[in-house]
Here is the input.
Amino acid sequence: MSAAVVIGAGPGIGASVADRLAREGMSVTVVARSRETVRATTDRLERNGRKALGLTADSTDEAALRAALDTAAAENGPAGLLVYNAALIRQDAPGELDARGQLDAWAVNVVGALTAAAHLAPGMAARGGGTILVTGGMPRAKPTHISLSLGKLGVRNLVELLHGAYGDAGVHVASVTVPDRVAPGTDHDPDDIAEHYWRLHLQPRERWQHEVVHGVRPAV
Here is the structure.
């Protein structure tokens, strides 16, 4: 049974992805900043007859995040799949957010993903393969969402950089871009979005995709 870690496992995409992976028999660890969020996600899985290890860690706290990943490995074994879904989503026009605020947003949206990937990818490479998936968004930059637009552009570049570093060793790195607000029962239902993550994890190397945009059919 392979192991998966979902960081940013709050209501919405994170919880749906965790549930989808557990449904396939993976040993899932969910990580979120608050105990309440972790409990809500693990409770959802239990209601569906599935289990997950719940851990708390702030994705911007490098030591805490690395410790959580080590705990997950000790409990469930080495991760074959990492999902980074943490994000700081807010509106801010040019100059509206000060430098500290921009750095804080960048730390959640990009640096946390880099920390998690750098912690797990070498082990995946040594074992001959693995999957790293990051939730993207903002297919086009918006001047009303400066910090988020910058962060999601950073995610795309991070995916490319991680692929360059670990792709030859069999680590599949990709992003799932969600272009609109997520809500159950809509075209952006989190359970539907979660299917992308599972499909990407299963993709054979010769058919790897590095970005999937929800709602857009891939070119044939």
In short: The domain at 3-213 is CATH 3.40.50.720 (Rossmann fold). The beta strands are 3-7, 27-32, 53-56, 79-84, 130-137, 171-178, 211-213.
